[in-house]
Design goal:
The protein is mostly helical. The chain contains 15 helices and no strands.
Length: 385
């Protein structure tokens, strides 16, 4: 394995082991690791990728990770990035499913500490992105308005609408200004690969349900169910759960135990597919469910990136992206409050831990992994009494 792939594996696995707190926090962890620390891409390109992945169905944070892997090391890099970020939580959930009982509690203090540190991580990412993506009064105003609208219309459709309106405003307001050159987006694959990817995406989406009545196999059924859910869900893991509960034949108490476990582990919430697949059909079922759940994300990102790199260099698109990037800052700002702050800070002592971890991360520039450990220890201490 070349040094480039080892680098991608190290970075993504570290994120897969430490990225607690849901998709908004993941965006913060990614920003710290890939933009601030490793400098694999700049703020503008990172925000473009985040904005693009917000438009696509599927787990946005996983798609951002896959996109960065694709940019860094081609299709192999995208696969390695995905495996590093996703496998830790998949393996933990598979192990939990193997020993699942009808009850399970995930309210321990150290888990509360892991939720709390996400507040500091998202705040840190927000500060860094604001400096570069909303540096003037107009774009700060766009960000604030988008944050307000995101909180008032807390749906996936509302979020996409906010991004579209911000892009339209950016186009109208900035289209006559001199636009900076687009950030470099070098890909090892081109438009032909992108078109093949789109054909595969829609082909599987249409054909799998058509042939399902003729194939009496639990594995075919798992692939069809998880592929379909991964293809059509907007808004992240919390939206996918009700869909899965309807589609998957698992007892409600076991499903809820898996939901609790999925929230307690790092990485994307979509890895609950590993838990449910394990319960349904053992290790093969778990691996197939995870593969099917994330395959649409791969196909969509590979299909979109070759065209995105051409589209985004146009003057009008660059103007629109100024508005869109400010909107991304606003959406992250809204997410800092809900769900990150509201789910983590239950009492004053929790906010004390936020202040401590935020100071270590932002002022003293501690590595996120150290801050995560400190927060877990503090959470365990204060919530054990």
């Amino acid at each position: 394995m070349s040094n480039k792939y080892i680098e991608i594996l190290k970075a993504s696995t570290k994120l897969g082991l430490t990225s607690f707190g849901g998709p908004s926090a993941h965006i913060g962890y990614f920003h710290e690791e890939y933009v601030n620390k490793r400098k694999w891409l700049d703020d503008k390109l990172y925000a473009d990728i985040v904005a693009l992945c917000q438009f696509l169905p599927g787990p946005a944070s996983s798609q951002v990770g896959i996109s960065i892997g694709l940019l860094r090391g081609g299709i192999a890099g995208g696969i390695i990035s995905f495996l590093g970020f996703t496998l830790p939580s998949v393996l933990i959930l598979m192990l939990f499913a193997a020993f699942v009982t009808t009850t399970g509690s995930f309210d321990s203090g150290w888990i509360q500490g892991l939720k709390i540190v996400a507040v500091a991580v998202v705040a840190h990412a927000l500060l860094g992105m604001q400096k570069n993506l909303a540096p003037d009064r107009i774009r700060i105003t766009i960000a604030i308005v988008c944050a307000i609208l995101t909180l008032l219309i807390p749906t996936a459709v509302g979020q996409i609408g906010v991004i579209l309106v911000a892009g339209l405003f950016g186009f109208l307001y900035y289209r006559k200004e001199t636009i900076e050159p687009a950030s470099k987006m070098e890909l090892s694959f081109g438009k032909k690969t992108g078109i093949v990817s789109w054909v595969l995406f829609f082909g599987l989406l249409v054909l799998l349900p058509i042939f399902k009545p003729f194939v009496q196999s639990i594995y075919y059924s798992i692939f069809d169910t998880y592929y379909r859910v991964g293809s059509i869900v907007f808004g992240g893991g919390h939206v996918v759960l009700p869909m899965l509960q309807r589609e998957v034949d698992v007892a409600p108490d076991i499903f809820l135990a898996g939901y609790g476990a999925a929230q307690a582990v790092p990485g994307p919430l979509f890895t609950i597919a590993g838990f449910l697949g394990q319960v349904t059909a053992g290790i093969p079922g778990a691996l197939l469910a995870v593969f099917a759940m994330f395959l649409p994300s791969f196909l969509l990102v590979i299909g979109m990136l070759p065209f995105w790199s051409i589209i985004r260099s146009k003057k009008g698109i660059q103007a629109a992206l100024k508005g869109v990037n400010a909107a991304v800052v606003g959406i992250l700002f809204a997410a800092l409050y809900d769900p990150v702050f509201t789910s983590a800070v239950k009492e004053p002592i929790d906010f004390v831990i936020v202040l401590i971890t935020g100071t270590l991360l932002i002022v003293y520039k501690w590595a996120p992994i150290k801050v995560v450990i400190v927060s877990a220890i503090l959470g365990a201490i204060v919530h054990s009494f």
